[in-house]
Amino acid sequence: MGEPSEAVFRARDVSKVYVMGEVEVHALRSVDIELRAGELLVLLGASGSGKSTLLNILGGLDVPTSGQVFYRDQELTGAGQRALTMYRREHVGFVFQFYNLIPSLTARENVALVTDIATNPMPPEEALEMVGLEGRLDHFPAQMSGGEQQRVAIARAVAKRPDVLLCDEPTGALDLETGKLVLGVLEQVNREVGTTTAIITHNVAIAALGDRVVRMSSGEIVERRRNTARAALGDIRW
Prior knowledge:
By secondary structure, the chain is α/β, with parallel strands linked by helices. The protein is built from six helices and ten strands; from the N terminus they run βββαββαβαααβαβββ.
């Protein structure tokens, strides 16, 4: 195995506490993690384990209560809202469990929402072709299946050519075969474009697709492992 690639993210001693009335909820407890350039990381854990909170902090959607987070040489902790907005716009693509498409816009127009404000985007048509939807450019979300809508969401995320793709339960609302299709698109983007990718899931079977697997429980990392080889998508069952 060659030299490890450079760290895209470094989180050091990161904690997140939410105060709800008189109750403190410790979502993250002194988490240390790195995400390396070009890798596919699978973040495993049950609901409430802290994995979405961690992803939101790495993506600049939330800030830690304590600790430090770096994106390459840029420290995100302490950055203002304007700086975090620019960071998200220029560097990060997000894919969520629910597709967040605008119902009144076509697939092409939903992707163009991002490409119109990106610095060096690919054409919406190219992004939709990458996810196998070149024949659905002018269809509205209501005219597409759940899997097709999620692929539009992925096209929207990758069209701005992000350095990092952060995916929170991207197959959570999909059946097995549709979920595998969506995972195949994410794996293809990681392999062919080289986009550093993190996939959050509670589904243990998906872990075999990653270069590395990190498992969380109660706001802490309880296991880290590297797969000797990434599994073929056809071998995944759940």
